[in-house]
Amino acid sequence: MHIRDLLLERLAVATVNNEDTVEEALAKITASGYRCIPVVDKEDTYKGMIYKVHLIEYLYEEKGDKNSAIDSLLKHQDTFITERSSFLSALISIKSLPFLSVVEHGKLLGILTHNKVESVLEDAFGLKTGGINITLSSTEAKGMIEKLTKTLRHENIEGMFTLDNGSVLARRVVITLENGKTDEEIEKLKEKFEKGGFRILQVDRIEKK
């Protein structure tokens, strides 16, 4: 999965121009309704991000000049990803930021939001389509996925991911199967897992959003 499939494109992104004054930048970010937005020049070259709180602190706490340039208030000038970046690299980078700017050849193409990242995880859990979400564990890491897929060879697997990577004691796996199973069918499936050496930790029915 690449970022180009997830980004909010440039035309939908509120920005501040790097030549705007502090007063102008504050007016734009206030009108946007966001706490932080990207900063670009007239050619849409990415210059960084600016936070509403830093503008307010500068004006009202530091008694700064409302007509001054915003250069000193810019943040994350070198923090961005490209549209070819992997989802994993974006997931690591976005944790401490309100969003990630997506830049190609210096130009702002759009942003990746936390909502988009969460939508990928929701999809993995089957929240979009609904299904039977099963969390299980195994003490055998090597060959575990092969054994699991053999156990589920007659099932339609909607999603799967692992937790506790690197653990030498146990590994958890979360799988989502298509909806429509009765309680009796789920019990039989749990028995199959247990016979295969898996421990069932939790079973949830996920309704389609």
TrEMBL record:
InterPro entries: CBS_dom, CBS_dom_sf, Lmo0553-like. It holds the Pfam family CBS. Keywords: CBS domain. SMART domains: CBS. Gene3D superfamilies: CBS-domain. Residues 8-66 form the CBS domain. PROSITE patterns: CBS. This is CBS domain protein. It comes from Filibacter tadaridae.
